[in-house]
Write a structure and sequence with these properties.
Radius of gyration of chain A: 20 Å
Helix content of chain B: 55-70%
Radius of gyration of chain B: 22 Å
Largest sheet of chain B: 2 strands, antiparallel
Distance between the termini of chain B: 30 Å
Number of domains of chain B: 2
Order of helices and strands of chain B: HHEEHHEEHHEHEEHHHHEHHHH
Number of helices of chain A: 15
Strand content of chain B: 5-15%
Structural class of chain A: mainly alpha
Mean pLDDT of chain B: 82
CATH class of chain A: Mainly Alpha
Order of helices and strands of chain A: HHHHHHHEHEEHHHHEHHH
Largest sheet of chain A: 2 strands, antiparallel
Largest interface: A-B, 55 and 53 residues
Distance between the termini of chain A: 17 Å
CATH architecture of chain A: Orthogonal Bundle
Low-confidence stretches of chain A: 1-22
Shape of chain A: globular
Strand order of the largest sheet of chain A: 1-4
Low-confidence stretches of chain B: 1-16
Mean pLDDT of chain A: 85
Number of strands of chain B: 8
Oligomer: heterodimer
Helix content of chain A: over 70%
């Protein structure tokens, strides 16, 4: 008798997980459908309950105000799909804003040079963490935690205070609004970038060998290795991608805040993970959609909007509601995993 | 899982030398500290209690020691609890709101009176923290969530709950007797130290004199095998998380008493990371199974000494984060069997090249 069979009813953690490809397609799409339905439900509720909620700009603001989170969350989606976790997201965003602000304001760099540098820097940071995780078989959680300490600490090495940006290139780009054709409604540069990242992420996850390798790695690393997939390279690349996305999110955040500060994006890693989970990606890896992450981010955004429209609820309700949603979705995931197995 | 495969006597031999590295690190840090700040080792008797930097470090380390003890047990079962910081904030908020302190003028003497009896307020704070831990434990053991995600939920929501309790304000505590927990002295030593010491001794007793330690270790090494062997894995896991919540609650009391206020946003901020760092420094394996309570206590002291050293050198305290990050990287690499093998082969290769065995 197999030890795992014996343990299965009471030890879902230890039981053998079925590869994602064997599951019926409907079951894979169920979490995604739940997420989209929840988002539409919240939209409907807001439109009925609050005057002025149902306006194009309100919905576009969801993207504008959460563009950096969306970009970072796409990176986090790949990490979680591969069965890992990246806790350094918020800190890398903060470090990006800090480096950008310091170089532009205090060293007279031009914007393109700064953006190139921080994107390469973020990617290298992620690659280094990926290498530590892959080569020395360290736990992703603790490596990225240390990475988070390091990135936040480096912010303070640059400056303890906030540095505001008044460089014309940045301010002009920050104020640029791209009309979408419905009345006065417009998107910011960051929001357009976020949509582009989501589309690129979808393509990367669904249509490339890399995406398939990430899914396989998250489904069962041992099996992926036996199938001859480049497990080591994929794992390092996933963290490099997350580092790149965090840095790009940081660039957008710099544009959004027009300042660099070591306390920027505090706890953003948790928001990113929450968005990924609410977006229907299984935390155990292997199953999920990048498009779901977009809706996860939008749900987090709309909760904030609803609370601000209500006016009588204090801001900390946002965190409580996000916590409750996270709990609900994790519970749903466990239940659906269990029913799949039995 | 380095030591897990070894037979029992070999592991015990390992265990004997396990504490020497953390201890050495602590002594080294204290040495550096003493060189930079000659007053460090100077203890004096003032106002009926011991007074000096060392006592200060011990007093400030007490909450971290407590949380690290809880965290050690959780990590020993292959788990992690990243909600302790939020639980510290919740406990501090409850204690702050329930004690508060209203100004009463009695016979011309102004004094502050607690809103609820102090023991009741403390029990409520610690009890709530225990419930938080229980919630985490049930999510992990019963629902079967990964520990980091299960506790992430409370970490996200917990700060909101703490702010809900305090109404988004920083609550100042005026009630004098409550200050004894974080600032008071008993027989010349800080009260907080007695609390941390008592919890440590009780836990040490439970782990070494009963089968609990063995069970926890068995779960950490192989949960399935432990269950098949008849260890009540689910119950023990729940208890371990509940205990971690309890220690965070007591730490919350000490923190709020020490700063005489409750701040839902900043109480216990990043404490989960410090606690995990302390546990790792103390030689407990993050992959579960091998744990050391004394090591975690030393780890907590190392972190507090590190903070004091950084203050003493005069660099901005925020740099602390970089130092901590580097320490974590080094400790992680030293714990990694692959890294040790790499270093060993790198050391051997030059010797082979010169023709020596």
């Amino acid at each position: 008798m197999n030890l795992d069979d014996l343990a299965a009813p009471r030890a879902p953690r230890a039981a053998v997980r079925m590869p994602a490809t064997l599951r019926p397609a409907t079951r894979r799409l169920l979490p995604l459908a739940t997420t989209i339905l929840l988002f539409l439900g919240l939209c409907l509720f807001g439109s009925l309950a609050y005057r002025g909620f149902f306006a194009p700009q309100v919905f576009l603001n969801l993207l504008i105000d959460n563009a950096f989170l969306c970009i970072a969350a796409v990176g986090a989606t790949f990490v979680i799909l591969s069965g890992g976790i990246d806790l350094s997201v918020g800190a890398v965003i903060a470090l990006t804003t800090m480096v950008s602000a310091a170089l532009v304001e205090q060293h007279g760099w031009s914007m393109p040079g700064v953006v190139m540098l921080v994107l390469v820097g973020g990617t290298l940071f992620g690659t280094a963490m990926g290498l530590l995780i892959q080569v020395f078989r360290l736990q992703a959680f603790i490596v990225t935690l240390a990475g988070m300490f390091l990135a936040r600490g480096l912010c303070y090495l640059i400056s303890i205070d906030s540095i505001s940006i008044s460089e014309p290139g940045y301010t002009r780009l920050a104020q640029l609004r791209i009309p979408v054709g419905i009345g006065d409604a417009a998107l910011s540069v960051g929001a357009v970038l976020a949509l582009a990242v989501v589309v690129a992420g979808c393509w990367l996850a669904q249509r490339t060998p890399f995406g398939r390798a990430v899914h396989a790695l998250g489904g069962d690393a041992q099996a992926a290795l036996l199938m001859g997939l480049p497990v080591a390279r994929t794992r390092v690349l996933v963290y490099a991608l997350s580092g790149f996305c965090s840095a790009l999110g940081g660039v957008v955040f710099t544009l959004y805040m027009l300042s660099g500060y070591g306390l920027h994006a505090q706890g953003m890693e948790l928001d990113a993970i929450a968005a990924v989970v609410i977006g229907g990606t299984l935390l155990s890896g292997g199953v999920g959609h990048v498009i779901g992450t977009l809706f996860g981010v939008l749900i987090l955004g709309i909760i904030q909007t609803l609370i601000s429209f209500d006016g009588s609820l204090s801001s900390w309700w946002t965190r409580i509601v996000i916590g409750a949603l996270l709990f609900l979705f994790c519970l749903l995931q466990r239940l659906s995993e269990r029913s799949t197995r039995s | 899982m380095v030591g897990s495969g070894l037979p029992a006597p070999a592991r015990r031999h390992w265990g004997g030398g396990r504490l020497q590295w953390p201890l050495l690190t602590l002594l080294l840090l204290l040495g550096v500290n003493a060189l930079l700040n000659p007053g460090l080792l100077h203890l004096q008797w003032r106002d009926g209690h011991l007074y000096g930097s060392l006592i200060d470090i011990l007093n400030r380390a007490a909450p971290l020691i407590l949380v690290s003890l809880g965290m050690t047990m959780v990590i020993a079962t292959r788990g992690i609890d990243i909600s302790v910081g939020a639980v510290v904030a919740i406990a501090a908020a409850i204690a702050g709101v329930m004690i508060g302190g209203t100004l009463v003028i009695h016979d011309g003497v102004a004094s502050h009176v607690s809103r609820f009896p102090m023991p009741l307020a403390m029990a409520a704070a610690v009890g709530t923290a225990l419930l938080c831990g229980l919630w985490n434990g049930l999510l992990v053991a019963r629902v079967g969530m990964q520990p980091i995600i299960a506790t992430l939920i409370l970490m996200v929501a917990g700060r909101g709950v703490a702010q809900l309790i305090t109404g988004g304000q920083i609550i100042t505590i005026y009630y004098e007797p409550y200050f004894a927990i974080g600032n008071g002295f008993l027989l010349g030593l800080p009260v907080a130290l007695y609390i941390a010491g008592a919890v440590w001794l009780l836990l040490q007793f439970a782990v070494s004199r009963t089968a609990l330690g063995l069970f926890v270790q068995a779960i950490g090494i192989n949960p399935v095998a432990a269950r098949v062997a008849g260890v009540r894995e689910e119950l023990i896991t729940v208890c371990v998380y509940a205990f971690c919540g309890f220690t965070a609650g007591v730490a919350g009391l000490i923190v709020s008493s020490n700063v005489k206020s409750a701040d839902g946003n900043n109480a216990g901020l990043l404490m989960e990371l410090d606690a995990i760092l302390a546990v790792t420094l103390g030689g407990t394996l993050l992959s579960g199974g091998r744990f050391s309570l004394a090591g975690s206590v030393i780890g907590a002291l190392i972190i507090q000494t590190l903070t004091s050293t950084i203050y003493a050198i005069g660099v901005p305290p925020e740099v602390n984060l970089v130092v901590k990050a580097l320490v974590v990287f080094v400790v992680m690499l030293l714990q990694s069997a692959d890294f040790r093998a790499l270093v060993r082969s790198a050391l051997r290769r030059p010797a082979e090249l010169t023709g020596q065995p």
